[in-house]
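Entry: Alpha-L-fucosidase
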Amino acid sequence: MQMTRSQMSLLLCLLSCASTNGARYTPDWASLDSRPLPEWYDEVKFGIFVHWGVFSVPAFGSEWFWWYWKGAHKSEYVQFMTKNYPPGFSYTDFAPDFHAQFFDPDEWADIFEASGAKYVVLTSKHHEGFTNWGSPNSWNWNSVDNGPHRDLVGDLGKAIRKRSLHYGLYNSLYEWFNPIYLSDKHAGFKTQDYVAKKALPELTNLVNRYKPDLIWSDGDWEAPDTYWNSTEFLAWLYNDSPVKDVVVTNDRWGAGCYCKHGGYYNCADKFTPGQLPNHKWEKCQSVDTLSWGYRRNMKLSELMDLPRIIKDLVYTVALGGNYLLNVGPTADGVIAPVFEERLRGIGAWLKINGEAIYATKPWRVQAENATSLVWYTSKNTSTVYAIITANPMQNFLKLAMPKTSNSTVVTLLGNPEPLKWIPLQSIGLTVQLPELPSSPAQAWTLKLDGVA
């Protein structure tokens, strides 16, 4: 039986309109967009994204393997299957080989904690529709009934929270080849059977069961938010769900929503604004520049090295964003050593320079390029951090923008001794640098106390 749009709205109103104490959000964007972003999100700055699913078994090309093979019929994917698998082999035949036999959630959580990340976002379900938990709406196409035969979402969540990190879940609204979704699509999204029977019950179950601190919505772009009933779901999430006071959401809730509606803004993948945005945002970036999921055919030249990652992190934070860095584990449940090396390198840099990142705010000037390219962050009312992302190769560094005073003190993070400096004519200063310590990240931070 098909559910009409009015019946769907009534169902969701029963969820979102129950009486509770406190402010209420109504199921419209004007009300939902007025919700203040929970403070924890802006303070943490750096998180880890994890793309893991059945696509990790072929581990070829990208996590969009199924679509490129059967939807777009890309020649390299078709040839890969013809060469390596027998005729009649289907994508669902990959699922039993998603063993995850080496998956140790505590080991993953240790690596993520060592990276300096403060939140972790796992794919609960990608566009292939396979859920990494025992979804009651996804019989036999989930990690409990098939493949690993374990609750991957729950197991990782327990390990992450033991380390006091925030736990978020990625969820794809649409599924490439789900016949119910395709029927709604064929009807021009005037029917909502997939939303009523699959998308919303599954997402609500995910929230009630795992209580995520963050929902990273995706797969929304083919249909409007009215098809997904996004505003009704978000009203329930913000008013009555078990995470109503802490949960953070992104902006992918229907065609035309991103960079416009929702909690913080992702905008397009790898969004890189040219100036300070007027809304909280996040840059998601993958260590493997060509894929979010694990690829057996990746090359070292296609991976971000540590200096590039740190520059990207610093740029993002200086412009008021959060940085969500992705790694794709193997189907066996292993985080490749090359990814682990990058993550531990970030953590080593943050141990020294983290106070210039965590809980900071954009300064009145975000960057300058006088002696060397410098990015600024700030804290309190009189502390500014100048992050140098390349060795200036000289003993003096000119900073043209800080307004100094007689009480200004300049230090190099990691070195407790104050540095000598002299003011410029009306604004700015020149700092005498010590010999800069070795930094695999090739980035150093000057802390300026007592500046306007």
